[in-house]
Amino acid sequence: MNLHQLPDSWPNVPNPNELKVIIGRGSPVEFGQTKVDDWVITMGTDPNQKIVGRAHGFHMNASNDHTTYIWYISHIYELQDDWFAGSTLQVLGIHGASDSGQWSIVGGTGVFTNAHGTIKFSRVVGGNEVTWALDVHVFYMQETS
Fold first, then answer.
1. What is the domain extent for residue 33?
2. What is the number of structural domains in the chain?
3. To bridge 96 with a disulfide, which of 9, 12, 20, 70 should be the other Cys (CB 3.0-4.6 Å)?
4. Cα 16 to chain center, whole Å?
């Protein structure tokens, strides 16, 4: 899966899917800067491919060293494709100095009730967006009626 981030602060982004809501303390790195996200999830790297879900949430600069961004991320991945439609995953973590790492899956609903696991991510460079390649490892227990 791929996560597509279209920042509102970049030039030539016709349909941004994040919005800066808090300006930080005035440092070049803006400690506390917060952005609200509605990122698109597709199966491929092209953001125009079939959307299989959305990442609703926010990311916040949690570094106070004034030289680097460390983004804390809190997202609900709302899936909308086939068998997973309406199910969600709660995703938390950080990224910053490196273009790859892991986020935690700390819960879920629908098909993914009692979910836990990890998402390995890596940044794919391109155009007027940031694309994150996702390798999702999720364990869950389906509810029985």
1. 2-139
2. 1
3. 70
4. 14
Q: What is the CATH number of the domain that holds 104?
A: 2.40.480.10
For residue 50, is it within any domain?
yes
pTM: 0.86
Q: What's the pLDDT at 23?
A: 66
1: its two tokens:
């899966």
Do 88 and 64 touch, CB atoms closer than 8 A?
no
What are the two backbone dihedrals, phi and then psi, of residue 82, each rounded to the nearest 5 degrees?
50, -125
37-93: pLDDT as tens digits: 999 999 988 877 888 999 999 999 888 877 778 999 999 999 998 888 999 999 999
Q: How far apart are CA 7 and CA 115, in angstroms?
A: 29
Whether 145 maps to a domain, the answer reads no
